[in-house]
Design the sequence.
């Protein structure tokens, strides 16, 4: 079994270079997305992801929102408290568990989420503008294949999709892969 530290040694030199170039590209786009979306959120940090994720999946519990935004339960409670105080989200009774609250965007939260997602989309469009439509389709097909193969769980799906635009993803590869594996986000959102 290869360790991750030495994994590059058994691959041709151009393989290592290709991974490095891709890694730099992925980090550049990711950093641009985080910077742009955070600049449109009401506060720095995971607020942008929380807004986008609740637009994508209204009714999430604090537990699943915590998984999606990468915070502890306590940190997510504090984030939700701040966003509720700002009038961006509201807590409602959960449909099946009286101890749990479901989280929903308010009208102001939806406006804020739309701004976050628009800035994210603009950065991605600018970053990929050097590609022609054929190249963009190839990149999308490859990305979809990698996303499907690397998906581990329902919980990870919320982390992956935390800054996705629901309306823009008409055939979500993550949702489709979960469905193919017999996992339904609609009925298992607190699994």
Sequence:
């Amino acid at each position: 079994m290869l360790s991750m530290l030495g994994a590059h040694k058994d691959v041709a030199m151009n393989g290592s270079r290709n991974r490095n170039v891709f890694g730099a590209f992925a980090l550049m786009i990711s950093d641009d997305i985080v910077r742009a979306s955070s600049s449109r959120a009401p506060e720095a940090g995971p607020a942008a992801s929380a807004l986008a994720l609740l637009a994508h999946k209204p009714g999430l519990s604090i537990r699943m929102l915590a998984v999606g935004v990468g915070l502890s339960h306590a940190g997510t409670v504090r984030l939700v408290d701040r966003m509720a105080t700002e009038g961006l989200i509201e807590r409602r009774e959960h449909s099946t568990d009286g101890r749990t609250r479901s989280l929903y965007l308010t009208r102001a939260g939806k406006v804020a989420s739309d701004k976050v997602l628009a800035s994210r989309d603009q950065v991605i469009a600018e970053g990929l503008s050097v590609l022609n439509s054929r190249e963009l389709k190839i990149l999308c097909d490859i990305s979809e294949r990698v996303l499907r193969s690397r998906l581990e769980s329902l919980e990870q799906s919320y982390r992956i999709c935390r800054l996705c635009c629901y309306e823009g993803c008409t055939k979500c590869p993550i949702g489709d892969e979960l469905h193919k594996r017999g996992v339904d986000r609609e009925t298992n959102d607190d699994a």
